[in-house]
Amino acid sequence: MAASPVPGGGGGGAVHSSSTSGFAFDSGLEIRTRSVEQTLLPLVSQITTLINHKDNTKKSDKTLQAIQRVGQAVNLAVGRFVKVGEAIANENWDLKEEINIACIEAKQAGETIAALTDVTKLNHVESSGQITILTDKTGVVQAARLLLSSVTKVLLLADRVVIKQIVTSRNKVLATMERLEKVNSFQEFVQIFSQFGNEMVEFAHLTGDRQNDLKDEKKKASMAVARAVLEKGTMMLLTASKTCLRHPSCDSAHKNKEGVFDRMRVALDKVIEIVTESKPNGETDRSSVSVFTGIKELKLNIEALWENLYFESKENLAAALEVILERVEDFTDSAYTSHEHRERILELSTQARTELQQFISVWMQAQSRKTKSAAEELELTVLRVSHSLNQLRKELHHTAMQLAADLLKFHADHVVLKALKLTGVEGNLEALAEYACKLSEQKEQLVETCRLLRHVSGTEPLEITCIHAEETFQVTGPQIISAAETLTLHPSSKIAKENLDVFCEAWESQISDMATLLREISDVFKGRRDFLIFSLSQKNNANLKSLKPDKPDSEEQAKIAKLGLKLALLTSDTDCELEKWEDQENEIARHGRNMSRMAYSLYLFTSHPEDTDLIAVFLLYQGFAAEGLKLTSNVQSFSKQLKDDDKLMLLLEINKLIPLCHQLQTITKTSLQNKVFLKVDKCITKIRSMMALVVQLLSLCYKLLKKVESNRWVSVTKKDIMDGKT
């Protein structure tokens, strides 16, 4: 299991099988529903923005056309959404009536919005020559609300369908596992395991889609971990079961097999817990908050108290620190923590307690003495507490990381595992006992280290990865020993040797994943996970940090909002072009999709420019320019497959986009001192021009790609005919 469990942690997302077709259809429906939803809801938002725009009664021709296009786009998206909803209804009779009612409501709302924004049906012309539109604003708002309500109903019902499928699939897997546990012959085992394999593929497919759809990073990481256990457990279950069948009277073989089945059941239950959002017996994770999380929460409470003198009680702050220091005892009580680190941690713990007591004392005085000097003294004590907590955090990080690095380096060559394999094939029981003891010691060291790493991991997904690593070493260590014992008792058994190899590989894999985990924890500690920060040069980063814009006035906001709406419409056009591509992983389509997503993120910024982190926005501008250059590079590669006329036509389009990418990069690096919103205006205008070209480019590439494929087919057909004649 990789250290970062979120992207495809268990490999289940890549699992495909014809046996899953019935399930894959419904799971695919969920994905399509989400996709249409992501297209639909932004368009409804655009409708709302348009009708609330300043001077919303008299519109220019361009605005009228924009309103009509949005209305039509909403109606088309609703049509696609309804088709998906009806397909789900037809597959699930128990929910069919509810889904169909919601689909009818959505369809009616879409048609209403299209009708109320249709310029051709409006004849209200003022003396100025302008057309009055959206006089029935209330009707549009009501239709938009009905649309959101009905879409939400369909999504919730579709979610119930997917959850039911996962639960049903899990129950099938459990039932087959029970049969596998009781099997007594190889022939029967092969038949049942074949069925089990198919059911696991179904389950992996469903849970993989669900994992990708989860928004909560903690749940996504937990799902990935559970799926990884099931994936690796399937191979362990195979070899452990075969070993038991070959050596039915061997206690160590049965012990080995039972461990595999137990862990797989726990993983299956964890998946259901995640998808149903249920906790067995009302369990909570509050009691196991990591040191880093506790320090973060305490600092937030102290800062909140500083800003509002009556926000938090002094008892709560002192109690929170004591909980943190109790967790710190995991470091000071560990036999593997060096004397120097232990002394330093104890010293910093005492300092943190002293600084917090001083802060509480000053805070109590500040409640009665509301003077400037009291406020300054309070601010100083806040800084001291924060500094002492940061120093403690830093020392804990160094302690855990150094311990883990030394441990991985010492066990990198897997001497103990190699020795266990050798003693097994030699049938040396005395040597087995010696090396089993050494592996148990190594396991305790790794488990303790993972526990300490969890305290300093910095993010919830990495915390979950640390817990997974701890559990894996805790479980796999004894399983290796039982597998080695079986081989030692039956040194000529090929199945027993294969079984030991599988468990040793799982151990080695987890050691490798732990090295990756250390790098990720280090990156989080150093702040390297900030989006695109490290792709900037120091000079440019300094330019961005110097941005100190004034609050945009209403005219600037209106102008930016209008540019954003036009940009959002272009992203909708881009998405429509991308829907035509059969191969969604095509590099041209992928970079086009990335640009569309970035452009939509910029549209969201234009809705509330005064509340946005401008550094992040300018980083996004640079990312957009870089993505545009990647797109042109891939299109150039594709042009080499074309004939001269088609190639020239495509290169002409590319040559329009490349200069715009470079111009955007130049604008983001050019200093305009405090004229930030002038710079924003220029960037969004440039991006709008780029997106218009991207729409044309995607359309042209799609047509030319189809032409190339058609020519290839014709060439192959002619060759077949000629070969036939010959």
UniProtKB/TrEMBL annotation:
SUPFAM superfamilies: alpha-catenin/vinculin-like (SSF47220). GO terms for biological process: cell adhesion; Rho protein signal transduction. InterPro entries: Alpha-catenin/vinculin-like_sf, Alpha_catenin, CTNNAL1, Vinculin/catenin. Keywords: Cytoplasm, Cytoskeleton, Phosphoprotein. One of its GO terms (cellular component) is cytoplasm. One of its GO terms (molecular function) is cadherin binding. The keyword Cell cycle does not apply. Signal peptide: none annotated. It is found in: Cytoplasm, Cytoskeleton. The keyword RNA-binding does not apply. It holds the Pfam family Vinculin. May modulate the Rho pathway signaling by providing a scaffold for the Lbc Rho guanine nucleotide exchange factor (ARHGEF1). Belongs to the vinculin/alpha-catenin family. This is Alpha-catulin. It comes from Cricetulus griseus. The gene is Ctnnal1.
